[in-house]
Amino acid sequence: MKIDKLKSVKYFSLFIGLLLSLSSCGVYSFSPSKLDSNLKTFSIQNFTMSTAGGPQNLSLSFNEKLKEYYQRNTSLKFKNLDGDLHLEGTIVGYELTPVSATAGDKAAMNRLTITVEVRLVNKIDESKNFERDFSFFQDFSQEQSLSQAEPALVPKILDQLVLNIFTATAADW
C-alpha cells in the first residue's frame, strides 16, 4: 500500500512538472534573439585596440566573432556602414593579475581579463542606445606563461564577451 502511494505521488509530481514546463513555453522563448521586427540590418565598425598587450590579431578576431554571432543568431543582414543596429567600440583592457597566492607569496593562479567598451546605436528605438564596458576573464596556472596560455584563453574570453554583448543588445531578457 505504501509503495502504491509513493508511485502515485511520483507520477503526480512528474505530471505537474510536465504541465508547468509546457505552460511556460508561452512565456519564454528559446530563440536567442528578441529584436524589434523593424530592424533589418546591422553594422559593426571595426573595434580598435587602445591597450597594450594581447595578440596582434585580437581586434580582428573579436570583430569577426561578433559579426558571425549576429549573422548566425539573428535574421538581420550585415551592412558595412549605417545598419539599423550599429555596434562600435574599443578594446580598452588586456590585463594579467595574480588571483591566489601560495605559501611563498607567489601567484598560484593568474587571471587574464579583457575589457571592451561598446557603443550601441539602435536607429529604430533610440531608448535602447547605450555605451558600456563588458569584461570577462579566465584563470590559468602560474606554471604556464601568458604566451603559453593565450591561445586557449583568448578565444574563450572573446566568445563570452560576444555572448554578453549579444545578450545586452539583441536578447531582450
What does this structure look like?
The chain has helices spanning 2-23, 58-73, 146-169; strands at residues 41-44, 48-49, 77-78, 85-101, 107-122, 130-141. The chain has 173 residues and is α/β, with parallel strands linked by helices. The chain folds into two domains: 1-30; 33-169, Double Stranded RNA Binding Domain (2-Layer Sandwich). The chain is elongated and about 60 Å long. It starts with a helix and ends with a helix. The relative contact order is 0.16.
Helix and strand arrangement:
Layout: H1 2-23, E1 41-44, E2 48-49, H2 58-73, E3 77-78, E4 85-101, E5 107-122, E6 130-141, H3 146-169
Parallel strand pairs: 1-3, 1-4, 2-4
Antiparallel strand pairs: 4-5, 5-6
Pfam family, one: LptE
InterPro entries: LPS_assembly_LptE
Protein name: LptE family protein
Notable traits:
elongated; 3 helices; six-stranded mixed beta sheet; about 170 residues; Double Stranded RNA Binding Domain; 6 strands; alpha/beta
